[in-house]
Amino acid sequence: MNPLIGRPFHGWRVAWAGFWVLFIVYGIQFSYGTFEGAISADKGWSASWLQLAYASYILAYSAASAWTGQLTDRFGPRRVIALGAVLLAAGYLVLSVAGSLAMVFIGLAVIAPLGMSSSWVPANATVVRWFTDRRGLATGIVGSGGSAGGIVAPPIAAWLVSQYGWRTAIAVMAVTSGVLMAATAMVFVRDPESIGQRPDGRTPDPAERPTLRSRIVSRPSAFVVDAVRRRSPNGENPATAWTAAQAWRNSVFWRIFGMFALTFVVVFVPFAHGVQYARSLGFSPLWSAGVISSIGIGGLVGRIVTGPLSDHIDRRRAVMLALAVETFSFVGIAMSDGLVLLYASSIAFGLSYGGSVAVFPALVADYFGRTNAGAIVGRFFATAGSFAAVGPYVAQLLLGTTGGYGWTFSMAAASNACALGLAFTLPRPALLAKS
């Protein structure tokens, strides 16, 4: 008998477990900038090659997320995330002992992405199964882990590098991240029905409660099977729920894909080039580094605020608001000639980026249901999310061609404006019919 059956609602534990998984994986990811400088100085390898390895890492884990999403639906999140912890640690351990660029690419662009792909999609796809009415709040909690990790981990990485060198720093963070991620994976449970609970912690109707309790106690395994087959409390019938293939054929899927492809393609540009841009405006290294901190703080607030807000104002409107703010934030960055506007625009970018990413899995579940959330969210992340690897590299090419960042941030604003236009075409989820 499952020891969780009969205990208080487990969904919030799953949401906070998702927070810690993203805290861990994005903490080590956003620490790469610290490692890169030390690696380049020590080994003499070109920063362009190390950036290419990082771009390959982003592309690979985004693409692999389609696979891990399907695995989450089939085997449950616990196994997928635990295996991902091992692979993530192994990839960074290979990086820590790299004696050639080939080993850098094997560790960072081949092994580590398999571990990273076992975080965002499995965590969010699991959380949206546990919530319907408070889905935005739950995904906001999960998403805020990534921002918190991006704020906390890089200074720790910088201290480790300064004290022990880049090899030891990466090894320590790899082992620590792997152990903590594997331990956190044990908290995950596929869905509330599998332990006799309901989304959002709703209780059964009084008339059916005795029957429900007796079935859990006397035949827990039979109850689990039947719970998957029966109509769920939020009105979704798993027998007729959206599959990934059905979603793929619907025009709404592609509109959402277009929205997030257009915003993801530029989303890492401020992270990768924000410090360089501030330096080009004549600011000191210390004040320039504050740009990334501003984005991180804004992202944390955006995830915490936008998620629960979307539960009350309609998820589509929350996405529209986030995309509108993100558009104007890029305009502000492009027009910056002082720290006040640059910092304010960076915070606004963090707010909007964090908010849109937090709402994204909840929006997908609103349209296509809970049953196959892993495969569907995974397909979105694998396709639209892969565009995130392109933006920073294109920005570097534009910098070399134009000699400045004006075109880069102006095009980023235009890309988000197009995404906002697509958001206005989305129908209400209740009106979506299978094609």
Describe the structure.
It is a single chain. By secondary structure, the chain is mostly helical. The chain has helices at 11-29, 32-43, 47-75, 77-96, 101-116, 120-130, 135-164, 166-185, 209-218, 220-229, 244-248, 251-264, 269-280, 285-313, 315-335, 339-368, 373-383, 391-402, 406-423. Helix 13 (269-280) packs antiparallel against helix 14. The longest helix has 30 residues, at 135-164. The chain is globular and about 60 Å long.
CATH class of the largest domain: Mainly Alpha
% residues in beta strands: under 5%
The chain-level structural class is mainly alpha
CATH superfamily of the largest domain: MFS general substrate transporter like domains
Overall number of domains: 3
Rg (C-alpha, Å): 22 Å
Mean pLDDT score: 85
Q: Report the CATH architecture of the largest domain.
A: Up-down Bundle
Number of strands: 0
Helix content: over 70%
Compressed to H and E, one letter per element, the order equals HHHHHHHHHHHHHHHHHHH
Distance N to C terminus: 41 Å
Please name the CATH topology of the largest domain.
Growth Hormone, Chain: A
Low-confidence stretches: 207-235
Can you describe this structure in just a few lines?
With 435 residues, this protein is an all-alpha fold.
SSE layout and pairing:
Blueprint lengths: L10 H19 L2 H12 L3 H29 L1 H20 L4 H16 L3 H11 L4 H30 L1 H20 L23 H10 L1 H10 L14 H5 L2 H14 L4 H12 L4 H29 L1 H21 L3 H30 L4 H11 L7 H12 L3 H18 L12
Helix pairs in contact: 1-6, 1-7, 1-8, 2-3, 2-7, 3-4, 3-5, 3-6, 3-17, 4-5, 4-8, 6-7, 6-17, 7-8, 7-14, 7-16, 9-10, 12-19, 13-14, 13-18, 14-15, 14-16, 15-16, 15-19
